[in-house]
Specification:
Elements: E1 6-8, H1 24-34, H2 40-51, E2 58-61, E3 64-71, E4 74-82, H3 88-100, H4 102-109, E5 131-134, H5 144-159, H6 162-167, H7 172-182, H8 192-197
Antiparallel strand pairs: 1-2, 2-3, 3-4, 4-5
Helix pairs in contact: 1-5, 2-5, 3-4, 3-7
Length: about 210
């Protein structure tokens, strides 16, 4: 698998209470899905499926996030969420803004997305920007399977905003390479070799999550 297609292991079932997204960019992802939904029952079932661990391994590639979702009523079903890749001009603006301030690159390396990077670029999805697909017989979109996938994607985004950047069209290595070409000195003592070697932090502990009641 190339670095333009990243795979993430399935989340196990969890119990407890807590928010699905803890970061501002994770919450923006969920708002884009929730504000588009026509059937809130599908969202509630999707939340339960996500917490119950019914979503299989998730693959992320430019413009597409996909997984297979099991179902108590059948399945499993292949489902995906599509979003537009950023244009070349948008990437130029985003990389330029990230390179303008050393703190922006340092924040990215710490797996934090500075809000100013989304000021002039449609980095975060808005209403209608997420296009769900599913092979299930339901006609509501997002269906419970696409909703379950989207809820779990917010956990991935919380742990690593480069997941969102990959879905928007560029890998972490490509972004860091472009930033390295634009910056004349290491950021806060971080060498380029160290930047590429930075380990992704573990995914968030989901022990405090619980299904939403029917």
């Amino acid at each position: 698998m190339t670095d333009r297609v990243q795979g993430f292991p399935a989340f196990p079932a969890r119990e407890g209470r807590g928010p699905f997204a803890r970061t501002w960019w994770g919450r923006a992802w969920l708002r884009a899905m929730e504000d588009t939904a026509l059937d809130l029952r599908q969202l509630r079932r999707g939340r339960r499926y996500a917490v119950a661990g019914l979503v299989g391994p998730i693959s992320v590639s430019p413009g597409r996030i996909a997984a297979t979702v099991d179902d108590v009523d059948g399945g499993p079903f292949r489902t995906s969420v599509h979003l537009a890749e950023l244009s070349t001009a948008d990437w130029e603006r985003l990389i330029g803004r990230a390179a303008d301030r050393a703190g922006n690159l340092a924040a990215l390396l710490d797996r934090h997305l500075p809000p100013e990077l989304a000021d002039d670029v449609p980095l975060l999805p808005g209403i209608g920007d997420l296009d769900p697909e599913c092979e299930c017989p339901g006609f509501e979109l997002p269906c419970r399977h696409a909703a379950a996938l989207s809820f779990q994607v917010s956990w991935l985004l919380d742990a690593d905003p480069f997941v969102l950047l990959l879905a928007r069209g560029r890998t972490e290595r490509e972004i860091l390479h472009e930033l390295g070409e634009r910056t004349a000195r290491p950021v806060e003592g971080i060498l380029a070799a160290d930047a590429y070697a930075r380990a992704v932090p573990p995914l968030p502990d989901l022990a405090d999550f619980s299904p939403v009641p029917r």
